[in-house]
Each structure stands twice: as structure tokens, then as C-alpha cells.
Amino acid sequence: MRRQQALVGGMPPPSRIESVVKAIFLTAICLVVVVPFIGVVSTSLASPEQVIKSGGFVLFPTHGIDWSAYKSILSGGTVTQSLLVSGFVTAVGTAIALFLTCTLGWALSRRGSVGNKPLLLLVLISLLFNPGLIPSYLVVQQFGLLDSLWAIILPVSVSAFNVIVVRAYFVGLPAEVLDSARIDGASEWKLFWYIGLPLSKAVVAVVGLFYGVGYWNSFFGALLYLNDSSKWPLQLVLRTYVVNGVEIGAQDLGAAGEALPPQTSIQMAILMISIVPILCVYPFIQRHFAKGVLTGAVKG
């Protein structure tokens, strides 16, 4: 029956060899993605003896689970401080970015508002032309933000792409609901706060995730603007100790006088800590992606 339907549709069914080749190809891709991740988790949890014996990469911890690497990096040293900094930057930055993006998107969605078209044109132009590195640094310097956490929060608090997506979603809201609220005496701010935002939870959740991931993973701004290592976010510490291979000492971990796990275990533990928060948040937001982004991109 399937063969007849396929032939009627003009496409022959895949042969057994083609199906086997596709299965092998997809399995290989999955292994390429999954095996390194399992190795990172296992290496961070393996015993020091097994890590040293295996040469630094453990696929499965056979001597039980050892949490010493996580205890070392969370004992109050550089990694703990950077984790708090990243949490602050992500929470505050995402809140500010969402407020600015949603209010600007709402203003641009009101076609009769003053300065709507020129402001929308500026937002669209910013999608094509980005400021250079030197002008961005000079702006941060002139505002006195150097060596401050605000230097990695404020300059990237508004994304033109996210503004366009939010604006398109607001444009697609039912006009009848907004008009009835205006007749009842609702101001523009009340329309935005009590009607616009509650009806746009999907796009707000998706845009918030975009901003949150961007702030959590940012390190280049911190590399440019922050000289004080105590203000470094987690990703910059990750770059220093994992990517550049700088050895982590006991004084960096707040564990002076204690025996440290192997450097590879500590590096993999730092890597896991940088990944886990996004993995925990993503499943709660993932269901809004199709509704939020696609609807917001098509409407308007």
C-alpha cells in the first residue's frame, strides 16, 4: 500500500539500503554530539585516580561519583565570584533589555504615534550597520562605564532584531480589544501593561531567553571593558582556565592548603556549571518558540 501511494505521488519509496545508510548517518551525527558531552560530565564526576589513569578524558566513571571538583570551584574562590557576577549580569541585563525592547516595540507598533516612522527607520538601519569596536569603546569610556558591570549590560540592552519581532507581534494584537479599552478610558501605558504584555507572553518569553543566553555567554565585552578580575563573569573565567589552559591554583579556588583534583576535572566542572543554567531554563521556554518567533516574524 505504501509503495503504491508513493508511486502515485511520483516518488519511489526509499530502498532498504538507503534507509540503512540514513540510519547510520544520523546515528553518527548523534554520537558526535552526545559523546563529547557525556565525556565532559563523566570527567568532572570521575575520581582523581581514574582521570589521571585515563589521561584526562573519562567516558564513564567506573570508580563511583566524585564531587570534589565541584566542591573546589564552589568553595568561594574566583569561580564562585564569577558565577555570582554572571547571575547578576544575566538577571539585571535581561530585565532591563526586556523592558526597553517591549516598550520600544509597543511604541513602534502604534502607527499614529509621533516619530513612529523615523524611529522605525533608525531601528531598521541598525540591523545593517553595526558600530565599530573603537567607537563602542569610546562611548563606554565617555559615559564612565569602564571597569564597571554596567559596561557589559547597557551597551547590548536593545537588539534591533528583537525589537522588530516584538513590534510585529504587537501589531497583530486584536484591534477590537485595544479599542474597547480606550473607550473605557485606559491610557496607553495601561494598554501596554494590562493588555499588550499579557497577550504577548510567548514572544516576551522567547526574547527574554535570547537576551538571557546572550548575557550569560558574553565574554568579549568583559574582556574589553573590565580590568578587575574580581568582576569577571563566568565565561571569561572559562576562557582563561579552559580555553587558554591557564592552570588553576588553590588560591584561585579558595581552597588553600587542600589537595586539588586534577586540572582536567576542574576545567570540565567549570564547563558544566556554565552549561547547566541554560539547559535548565530552555525546556520551560522551548514550547513558546514556534508561537513567539514565527508569529512575530510573519505578522506586521
Terminal CA distance = 44 Å
CATH topology call of the largest domain: MetI-like fold
The mean pLDDT is 83
CATH homologous superfamily assignment of the largest domain = MetI-like
How many β-strand stretches?
0
Which spans of ≥5 residues are poorly predicted at pLDDT below 50? Answer: 5-9
CATH class of the largest domain: Mainly Alpha
Strand and helix order: HHHHHHHHHHHHHHHH
Shape: globular
Helix content percent band: 55-70%
- As a percent range, the share of strand residues is under 5%
Rounded to the nearest angstrom, the radius of gyration is 25 Å
Question: Into how many domains do the coordinates divide?
Answer: 2
Largest sheet: none
CATH architecture of the largest domain: Orthogonal Bundle
The number of helical runs is 16
GO cellular component, one term: plasma membrane
InterPro entries: MetI-like, MetI-like_sf
GO biological process, one term: transmembrane transport
Keywords: Cell membrane, Membrane, Transmembrane, Transmembrane helix, Transport
